[in-house]
Specification:
This protein is an alpha/beta fold. The chain has one domain: Rossmann fold (3-Layer(aba) Sandwich), CATH 3.40.50.150. A seven-stranded mixed sheet has the order 3-2-1-4-5-9-8, with helices on both faces. It has a two-stranded antiparallel sheet with strand order 6-7.
Length: about 200
C-alpha cells in the first residue's frame, strides 16, 4: 500500500471511503477560504485521491496534481475524467523534487492534510518557494493540534496521531525559514486551519 512507498509522508494515508466526504463536504469553500482564484496556474501537492483536485481544476487555468502514489493519482484522474475536467496534468513523484516536475513557475501551491507528515518541512517549503512566481502563494491545510480522540468523524476518532499534529505557530515557523511569509491564517471546519504564505516580490 501507499505507506510502504519510499518517501511517503507519515500519517498521510488516504482514509476509508465515506468519511473524507463527511469531513470536507464543501471543498470549494475551503479553496475560496485560502484564496484560490480563477485563472491561476496551480499545483495540488500530495493530491491523494483527488477530493480537492477536482475543485481546484474547476477554478484553475491549469492544474498539476502531484503525489508519490501512482495508484492514488489514477483514482484522481478517473474522478476528473468522470466530471469532464481536462485541464489537469498528473505527475507521480517526490514532493521534495518539485522543480523537476513543474515546467514553469506557478501562482499557487495547495497542500491539504499532509504537511504534518513531512519529515523535513523547511526543505519542502524551500522546494515550494522554488516553483512560485513572485507574489505566488502556498496554502497548507492542517489538522489543529488537538488530541486525536477529540477529532471525531462519523462517530470515530480520525486524522493523524496526536503527536504528529502541528499548531499554526509550528507550521508558520517551519515555512518561513524558506523565505516565504505568512499572508493569512483561517479556521476551517471542522478541525483544520489554513495557513497561506506568499512569495516575496523581490
Amino acid at each position: 500500500m501507499a505507506a510502504n512507498i519510499p518517501g511517503f509522508f507519515q500519517g498521510t494515508e488516504m482514509p476509508t471511503a465515506g468519511w473524507w466526504e463527511a469531513l470536507w463536504p464543501d471543498p470549494a469553500g475551503v479553496l475560496a477560504a485560502v484564496w484560490v482564484k480563477p485563472g491561476m496556474e496551480v499545483i495540488d501537492l500530495c493530491s491523494g485521491d483527488g477530493w480537492f483536485t477536482l475543485q481546484l481544476a474547476k477554478v484553475a487555468r491549469h492544474l498539476i496534481a502531484i503525489d508519490i502514489d501512482p495508484n492514488l493519482l489514477e483514482v484522481a484522474r478517473h474522478r476528473l475524467v468522470e466530471s469532464g475536467v481536462t485541464n489537469c496534468s498528473f505527475v507521480a513523484g517526490d514532493a521534495y523534487e518539485l522543480a523537476k516536475m513543474v515546467p514553469r513557475l506557478v501562482d499557487f501551491v495547495f497542500m491539504a492534510n499532509a504537511f504534518h507528515g513531512v519529515p523535513d518541512r523547511p526543505r519542502l517549503s524551500r522546494a515550494v518557494r522554488g516553483v512560485l512566481k513572485p507574489g505566488g502563494q502556498f496554502a497548507i491545510v492542517n489538522w489543529h493540534q488537538r488530541p486525536r480522540e477529540e477529532t471525531m468523524v462519523l462517530g470515530e476518532p480520525r486524522g493523524p496521531k496526536t503527536e504528529l499534529r502541528l499548531s499554526p505557530e509550528q507550521t508558520i515557523e517551519a515555512v518561513e525559514t524558506s523565505g516565504l511569509k505568512l499572508s493569512h491564517l483561517v479556521d476551517l471546519a471542522l478541525y483544520h486551519y489554513g495557513a497561506v504564505f506568499e512569495q516575496p516580490h523581490t
